[in-house]
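Hello Y.,

Per our agreement to keep a running log of every chain we model this quarter, I'm adding this entry. I've kept the format consistent with earlier entries: sequence first, then predicted structure.
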Amino acid sequence: MKLRGRKGILGIVLLVLVAAAGLVGSHMLVTSRKPTVSAAPACPKDHERALACYEQYYGSIVAQQGVPEAFAALKQQYGRDPDVQHLCHALTHVIGQAAARKYSDLPEAFQHGDNFCGSGYYHGVLQGRSFQMGRERLLSDLNSICAGIPGKERKSLEYYNCVHGLGHAVMAITGDDLFDALHDCDGLTGSMEGNACASGVFMENLIVDGAHGGHYSKYLKPSEPLYPCTAVDTKYKPACFDLQTSYALGAVQGDFAKVFGLCAAAGVPFRLTCYQSLGRDAAATSLNQVPGTVARCALGTDREQRANCIRGAVLDFVYYYHSDAQAKQLCAAVDPALQADCRSTTAKAVGLF
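Predicted structure for the entry above:
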């Protein structure tokens, strides 16, 4: 069964989770389209200087030619440069910020968008708009900024990208102060909107840590890999645990067994979200191949850990392949006690596409 798009909140949330997984392993496809622009500069290896270099390069392409040409150049570089692969989500932010300068109308900027590298373009557009507006105006207009984006009533992907992008925007405008940014998200009306904004805050907190803007987040602690999820208000914890395992894995040198243990200490119900997030990471670091994914989820010490890890992994398989074929292969390879739940999770995900 080949899937032809994505609908529903689950499909939207998967996009966000895949972006987070990109901090550990890449999920992005490279197109063969070649840009009609000058060759990319030989930017420094240091991330801070590299981002400044690429910002000038991609910003000039957007200004002189357009967003599609900037993405074409990025995708061409992505296929041959590991540094660009690592910085890809941050670079799509750069393109989005340049688009915000080029297009005064937010819906128009969205029309030129591309979901490449975790939809970072849309996050960058909102960041660029926040810089133009300033914090006071941004917060006073918070509920109207995304009103012109199509699909608000049906919670479309475009609308989700906008309100999720507001989380990135308030992080930018507060100087990456996570707790202030979460408080700002509270100004949004609607539970989906508030949760999406909070997810954007937590994602930006991961991105900023040495890969975006060239500095490190004060809200990440190698000695406490699940912080800030352990410190934020209960209402924010699901959005945080949805993403935090990508950082935790890096903090413990990729030791899945150790992160399973960290998640277990989070308690119910958040440990379940944490295990599922770890399943996404298992799929990502295994390059969405069945053997590696199964082996990593098998590091869970009990059925609850392994079952939720497989749930997160199989959801990622469905998103990554836009098909249920590989997900079914994954389900067939797991422990027989987990297969029925794996197949059920696959069917629910496919039904929402």
